[in-house]
Amino acid sequence: MSGPNPNIKHPIPMHMRVGFLKGLVNAPNVEIGDFTYYDDPDGPDKFAERCVLHHYPFIGDRLIIGKFCAIAEGARFIMNGANHAMSGFSTYPFNIFGHGWEEGFDAKTWSKEIRGDTVLGNDVWIGMDAVIMPGVTIGHGAIVAAKSVVTHDVPPYAIVAGNAAKVVKMRFDDKTVRRLLMAAWWNWPVDKISRNLNAIRGADIARLEAAV
Fold first, then answer.
1. What does the DSSP assignment read for 85-110?
2. What is the sign of the dihedral through the CA atoms of 74, 77, 82 and 85?
3. What InterPro entries does the record tag this protein with (predicted)?
4. CA neighbours within 13 Å on the CB side: how many for 49?
5. Residues 6+ apart with CB under 8 A from 196
6. Domain boundaries in the chain?
7. Domain covering 18-171, topology
């Protein structure tokens, strides 16, 4: 078994709603790992336009998505370009409309709202209509429930839900999580992953470690 080509745009014949994003997104401020896919009945081709919002290159923030992530229909990544200055009485962005309103605007009042890159680890599952806010890091193996709004970092292998999303359950105990992070199967060569699929999709950590 060699596995599918991670660079192919539509890896499932006759099922064009699913696409590997690495071959579909070429924005310089977006980084997507192998085999991560987006599933949308309207097709995955417009992922960057529909799902990555307020992402302007001049700001400098990046969206980094790891390998083997599953992103459901309607997920949204709100980037730092959506932020408004909040240190004054009004949050209205007068300056962007020009005609004199830009005069006297202190760019530092806005730039201090920048919260950094948005990062998804490997093997993350993002549920339908979930919203990921700017600067959030979601750990390896985490699950974000449908319609959740993620405003803070998510630990590896946590399940989060709600608005604002909170940890409702850990998928595994702390020791197992540490062992999974050490195994880091997503970094194995594809042929090794293919040979050990049952260990990866199973629940026997010793068997997975034996494959390392």
1. --SSS----GGGG-TTTTTT--HHHH
2. positive
3. Hexapep, Hexapep_transf_CS, Trans_hexapeptide_repeat, Trimer_LpxA-like_sf
4. 6
5. 185, 188, 208, 211
6. 18-171, 173-211
7. UDP N-Acetylglucosamine Acyltransferase; domain 1 (2.160.10)
Please indicate whether residue 10 is annotated as part of the active site.
no
| 161 phi and psi angles, rounded to 5 deg | -155, 155
Active-site residue among 10, 54, 55, 84? 84
HSE-CB of 40 using CA atoms within 13 angstroms: 21
- Judge contact between 183 and 208, C-beta under 8 A: yes
Residue with tokens 């998928």: 171
Percent helix / strand / coil, the chain, rounded to 5: 25, 20, 55
